[in-house]
């Protein structure tokens, strides 16, 4: 029995890790009520990521067969570059992330999503999801130590690796202020972390997972200036060298994105770098003008768009 206990216990741990990471992902993608009935094709190969280049090719998608969530969306995320999605609520930002994570499959004739030349419908879901790191808006913490909460990004992470990830995620110094450092319990029954701190824990987890592709959902709520700075620094460390797609609610955070896509009613209505979009003097420029004229310097992208 004792011989069985070790492996069984480990299996339980793996099960919990898998289960917990799904909880996180589901939360980000607001999928708790959405069934996922995507099946791999028989003998589907694993995704092979060489460059991490993502391409949406004329993607059209409907959830219910009546309203169009995405309508002819095409764009490319070149190797290692950052693409930011902005637009009012319901414009299709989350749908783009959900489709890339393959919670739904596109039907024939409704476009393709391709990573390094492979249609994501043709590869295993497991390999796809292994290649993608997700930083949700409101990460879930477990009632366990802060080290465990960071370490489950990588099953066999050593304490040194956990600390290194926490340093890159700008959380190390904060953790040292906890009564038992990395062994301090966090979550509901331990030290309660702020939204910004939880997001940095999620960034540390993702640094450990080390995926070539990232999906980021920026927090909607305003953060104080120093927290904002820490998160920006942590995100810079995370996105470096990876292909990333992020939903931006606050325009201040995406000035450095390689490409900004402005969505409306499931279509890309403007695209370019921050300066190109300002020069265009269209929807993005008016959103930006709204933001800098707002007294607190923080504006929700969706709200600004509605003011048009
Ligand atoms: P937000 O900023 O509010 O998160 P969004 O830009 O991410 O909005 P999506 O969630 O992608 O927008 O929604 C795009 C469209 O698809 C909207 O019209 C929305 O009502 C619809 N939609 C989203 N999820 C579902 C669903 N599960 N079932 C049916 N329609 C949906």
Automatic annotation (TrEMBL):
Domain of life: Eukaryota
Family: Belongs to the ABC transporter superfamily. ABCB family. Heavy Metal importer (TC 3.A.1.210) subfamily.
A single MF term (Gene Ontology): ABC-type transporter activity
Protein's recorded name: Mitochondrial half-size ABC transporter
Keyword terms, alphabetized: ATP-binding, Membrane, Mitochondrion, Mitochondrion inner membrane, Nucleotide-binding, Transmembrane, Transmembrane helix, Transport
Locations listed in the record: Membrane
Signal peptide residue numbers: none
GO biological process, one term: transition metal ion transport
Complete-protein stretch covered: 571 to 878 of 1127
Domain ABC transporter: 54-290
């Amino acid at each position: 029995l004792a011989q069985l206990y070790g492996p069984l216990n480990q299996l339980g741990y793996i099960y919990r890790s898998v289960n917990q990471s799904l909880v996180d992902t589901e939360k980000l993608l607001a999928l708790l009520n959405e069934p996922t009935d995507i099946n791999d094709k028989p003998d589907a190969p694993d995704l092979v990521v060489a460059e991490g280049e993502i391409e949406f090719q004329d993607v059209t998608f409907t959830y219910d067969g009546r309203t169009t969530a995405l309508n002819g969306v095409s764009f490319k995320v070149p190797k290692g570059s950052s693409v930011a999605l902005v637009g009012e609520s319901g414009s299709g930002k989350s749908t783009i992330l959900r489709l890339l994570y393959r919670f739904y499959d596109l039907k024939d004739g409704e476009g393709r999503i391709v990573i390094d030349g492979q249609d994501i419908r043709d590869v295993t879901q497991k390999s796809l999801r292994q290649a993608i790191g997700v930083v949700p808006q409101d990460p879930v913490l477990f009632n366990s130590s802060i080290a465990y909460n960071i370490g489950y990004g990588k099953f066999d992470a050593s304490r040194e690796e956990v600390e290194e990830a926490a340093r890159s995620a700008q959380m190390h110094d904060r953790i040292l202020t906890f009564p038992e450092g990395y062994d301090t319990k966090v979550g509901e029954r331990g030290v309660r972390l702020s939204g910004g701190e939880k997001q940095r824990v999620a960034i540390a987890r993702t640094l450990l997972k080390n995926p070539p592709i990232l999906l980021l959902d920026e927090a909607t709520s305003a953060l104080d200036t120093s927290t904002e700075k820490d998160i920006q620094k942590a995100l810079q460390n995370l996105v470096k060298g990876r292909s990333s797609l992020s939903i931006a609610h606050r325009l201040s955070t995406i000035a450095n994105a390689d490409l900004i896509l402005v969505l409306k009613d499931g279509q890309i209505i403007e695209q370019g770098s921050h300066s190109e979009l300002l020069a265009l003097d269209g929807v993005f420029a008016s959103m930006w003008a709204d933001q800098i004229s707002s007294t607190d310097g923080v504006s929700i992208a969706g709200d600004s768009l509605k003011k048009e």
